[in-house]
Design brief:
- The protein is an all-beta fold and 118 residues long.
- 0% of the residues lie in helices and 52% in strands.
- The chain is built from no helices and eleven strands.
- Strands 2, 4, 5, 6, 9, 10 and 11 form a seven-stranded mixed beta sheet that branches. A four-stranded antiparallel beta sheet has the order 1-3-8-7, with no helix packed on it.
- β9 and β10 form a beta hairpin.
- The model has no long low-confidence stretch (mean pLDDT 94).
């Protein structure tokens, strides 16, 4: 069974930083594409960062320059580093796995809440 478990969220003041982690188990690491999404209640879930099976990354334009996605293959962990947090970054953050790298994310974590106060 594939499981994704996020952690690292919290309440922080604007301008601060956070590192979100997503520990993955149940599949052969380095063969899938991964992503971070975020969602605000009442709004659509949006992708903020992706990393493919060649470790090439993409960052959404809205957060470019502040968000960084990376992975530690030995620890089977995906990271999202967020710098210069803004109140509009407040959301539930999810990691997701795309086994065939077709932008069809089949596996999701339970999410970790990030709240940024001014």
């Amino acid at each position: 069974e594939v499981t994704l478990v996020e952690s690292g969220g919290g309440s922080v003041s604007a301008g601060g930083s956070l590192r979100l982690s997503c520990v993955v188990s149940g599949y052969r690491w380095q063969s899938w594409c991964m992503a971070w999404f975020r969602q605000v209640p009442g709004e659509k879930r949006e992708p903020v960062a992706t990393i493919n099976d060649n470790e090439m990354t993409t960052i959404a334009d809205s957060v470019k320059g502040r968000f960084t996605v990376s992975q530690d293959n030995a620890k089977k962990t995906l990271y999202l580093d967020i710098d210069n947090l803004m109140p509009e970054d407040t959301a539930m953050y999810y990691c997701a796995a795309d086994p065939r790298c077709t932008s069809n994310y089949e596996y999701w974590g339970q999410g970790t809440q990030v709240t940024v106060f001014a």
